[in-house]
């Protein structure tokens, strides 16, 4: 929501990437930082409420290990680990691809441990392709 506003996009992305830039170029850096962190806290609490309602209990390790799949989905969707690139639509498409791969492995009866190996391999291949394409763009 913040990044859709005309002045929010530049400063919320800068706040995440480069705090010194925001504090030197924005007249209300404390207000922007506070509103960004408050929005993050609200969305995190909403996710916790939804998870608790879905599982009917509070389990702190409910989604342990999901980080690798989320990072792989974002990289497949076009986000760069170096930062500064990527779209929400690309991340959603990467998430759909990772969900399809995970669902297919479950349907084929692949062990959960091999699912982690396959996800890691997909992540390594996606990052390698991203780095190769960055080098080619710098060369030309």
Verbal overview:
The structure is a single chain. The protein folds into two domains: 2-55; 66-139. The protein is 74% helix and 0% strand. The protein has six helices and no strands. The longest helix is centred in the C-terminal third of the chain and has 28 residues, at 112-139. The radius of gyration is 19 Å and the shape is flat. The mean pLDDT is 78.
Biggest sheet statistics:
none
Give the number of DSSP strands: 0
On the 0 to 100 scale, the average pLDDT is: 78
The helix/strand series, from N terminus to C terminus, equals HHHHHH
β-strand percent reads: under 5%
How big is the Rg?
Answer: 19 Å
Structural class: mainly alpha
What share of the residues lie within helices? Answer: over 70%
Shape: flat
Brief overview:
With 140 residues, the protein is mainly alpha-helical.
Salient structural properties:
74% helix; mainly alpha; 140 residues
Write the layout of secondary structure elements.
Blueprint (H helix, E strand, L loop, with lengths): L7 H10 L1 H7 L3 H27 L10 H11 L11 H20 L4 H28 L1
Helix pairs in contact: 1-2, 4-5, 4-6
């Amino acid at each position: 929501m913040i990044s859709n506003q005309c002045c929010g996009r530049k400063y919320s992305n800068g706040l995440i990437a480069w705090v010194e830039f925001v504090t030197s170029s924005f007249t209300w850096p404390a207000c922007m930082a506070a509103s960004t962190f408050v929005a993050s806290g609200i969305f995190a609490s909403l996710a916790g409420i939804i998870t608790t309602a879905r599982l009917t209990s509070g389990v702190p390790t409910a989604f342990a290990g999901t980080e690798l799949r989320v990072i792989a989905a974002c990289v497949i969707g076009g986000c760069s680990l170096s930062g500064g690139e990527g779209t929400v639509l690309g991340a959603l498409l990467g998430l759909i691809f990772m969900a399809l791969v995970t669902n297919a492995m479950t349907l084929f009866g692949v062990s959960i441990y091999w699912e982690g190996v396959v996800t890691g391999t997909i992540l390594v291949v996606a990052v390698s392709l991203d780095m190769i394409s960055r080098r080619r763009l710098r060369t030309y």
